[in-house]
């Protein structure tokens, strides 16, 4: 049987750094292959080579369904049957389902050259039905749920307008999806697999790899470490292959912090924002509070509203002092630090230096007589980069864009931790980072709480909330449906709770799950 994807002798060098080193990879038709590895291991570079964004070094051979891929030639991958769905889905939110399916392919036309809308709608309906995807054709992409948007992007990729799809590459397709919505996506991927299409599935969520994939390829330092059937592995064994070290140090429980929890620092009364109405809670010094909920629960609006990036109602106080709404500058002055969910859009300056990214929240702290003392600034930033384990080390002038996702997230954290915040707001703090960086970031959250910060963690990763939090509040349709405290916090309990519908307000009064 001819392999759906065959890669031999693939290397890619940037300057003096070899990002890919003699990669060999075979994927069979109808196989779902997981591709895993820490940030910076070479996964993204491999996908960009396949997509034609990077040219490989000389000597590489790539074939799709036995046909040689002419890397660097526009349309070569598409014509060979290679399809991609990236984390950024490439949909146009102001266009409907039919128009988004036509993007990149063009419209069917009538004999006089106008768009044949009847044929377009019929073709779109057939393409979705073939995959078992139920979407209203007139719905704007911006009105779809995240899982529906992802399914629309997949349907666009595998439709036969450019020929038969042979290999589908899914790059972190569940990064923004709650677990319940990811299940719907997996059903679609299996239906595509059953048509004989090979799927290369890239994910940092190892539970997804074990749930969906037939086999897994592990990358480390630009090389393929191994390809294994998942029947031969458990999660701990896979983690050790990824990081090249024993897994125990990454699974350590946080130090007990209950005795160190002090008085309330952040107090919220009748918060209203987006789907959330009249939500009241407080966080004490040294406490880590988590918020869980599926997409649309109101979870997504909490951190932006508290930091002043979105309009809100209600009262927020830090150490008894009111924080005015809509004013991130006043939130910062009150001692609030914020790491938003969309790092690249809302927190990071990709083409600025690490020094500038860290000191941007307080540049005048290094000034004298109105002039920034760059030498002092570099020294302070270098200290924090080393303290947080940012790699590569030693160069504060390196552009942020040159770092892996996990190291970029550490830089954003350094921006706030160096200010010794009274309140630390973390929205999806480890989204899109590898397991090693995730463990490092969790340790930094532990340290911030031990230092007395009141920490809020909003996350769709229920394992993360279980690992970090002293309490977790669960939202559904903007209302509190449960609250759990240690030792009652666990991923399965949180997942079940997020699927609840809120009870009438009177029924909730005075209830709390411990």
From TrEMBL:
The keyword Cell membrane applies. It comes from the Bacteria. One of its GO terms (molecular function) is ATP binding. The keyword ATP-binding applies. This is Sugar ABC transporter ATP-binding protein. Residues 5-246, 261-502 form the ABC transporter domain. It holds the Pfam family ABC_tran. Keywords: ATP-binding, Cell membrane, Membrane, Nucleotide-binding, Repeat, Sugar transport, Translocase, Transport.
């Amino acid at each position: 049987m001819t392999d759906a994807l065959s890669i031999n002798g693939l290397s890619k060098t940037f300057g003096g750094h070899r990002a890919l080193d003699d990669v060999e990879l075979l994927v069979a038709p109808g196989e779902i292959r997981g591709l895993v590895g820490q940030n910076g291991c070479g996964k993204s570079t491999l996908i960009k080579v396949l997509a034609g964004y990077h040219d490989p070094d000389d000597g590489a051979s790539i074939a799709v369904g036995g046909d040689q891929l002419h890397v660097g030639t526009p349309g070569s991958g598409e014509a060979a049957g290679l399809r991609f769905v990236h984390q950024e889905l490439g949909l146009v939110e102001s266009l409907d389902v039919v128009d988004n399916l036509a993007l990149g392919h063009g419209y069917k036309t009538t004999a006089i050259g106008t768009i044949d809308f009847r044929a377009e709608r019929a073709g779109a309906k057939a393409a979705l039905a073939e995959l078992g995807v139920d979407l209203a054709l007139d719905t704007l992409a911006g009105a779809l749920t995240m899982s529906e948007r992802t399914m629309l992007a997949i349907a666009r990729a595998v439709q036969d307008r450019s020929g038969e799809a042979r290999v589908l590459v899914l790059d972190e397709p569940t990064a923004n999806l709650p677990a319940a919505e990811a299940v719907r996506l997996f059903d679609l991927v299996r239906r595509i697999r059953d048509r004989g299409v090979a799927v290369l599935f890239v994910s940092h969520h190892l539970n997804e790899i074990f749930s969906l994939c037939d086999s897994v390829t592990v990358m480390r330092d630009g090389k393929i470490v191994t390809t294994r059937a998942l029947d031969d592995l458990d999660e701990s064994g896979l983690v050790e292959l990824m990081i090249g070290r024993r897994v125990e140090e990454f699974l350590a429980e946080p130090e007990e912090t209950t005795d160190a929890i002090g008085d309330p620092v952040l107090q919220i009364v009748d918060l209203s924002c987006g789907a959330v109405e009249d939500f009241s809670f407080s966080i004490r010094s040294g406490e880590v509070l988590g918020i869980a909920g599926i997409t649309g629960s109101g979870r997504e609006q909490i951190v932006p509203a508290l930091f002043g990036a979105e309009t809100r109602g209600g009262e927020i106080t830090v150490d008894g002092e009111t924080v005015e709404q809509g004013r991130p500058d006043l939130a910062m002055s009150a001692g609030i630090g914020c790491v938003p969910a969309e790092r690249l859009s809302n927190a990071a300056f990709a083409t600025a230096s690490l020094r500038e990214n860290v000191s941007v929240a307080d540049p005048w702290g290094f000034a004298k007589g109105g002039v920034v003392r760059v030498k002092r600034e570099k020294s302070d930033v270098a200290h924090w980069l080393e303290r947080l384990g940012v790699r590569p080390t030693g160069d504060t002038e390196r552009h942020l864009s040159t770092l892996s996702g996990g190291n970029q997230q550490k830089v954003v954290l350094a921006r706030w931790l160096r200010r010794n915040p009274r309140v630390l707001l973390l929205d999806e703090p480890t989204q899109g980072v590898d397991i090693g960086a995730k463990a490092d970031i969790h340790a930094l959250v532990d340290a911030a709480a031990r230092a007395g910060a009141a920490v809020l963690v909003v996350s769709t990763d229920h394992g993360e909330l279980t690992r970090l939090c002293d309490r977790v509040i669960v939202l559904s349709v903007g209302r509190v449906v449960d609250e759990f405290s240690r030792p009652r916090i666990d991923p399965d309990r949180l997942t079940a709770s997020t699927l609840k519908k809120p009870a009438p307000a009177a029924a909730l009064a005075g209830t709390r799950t411990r």
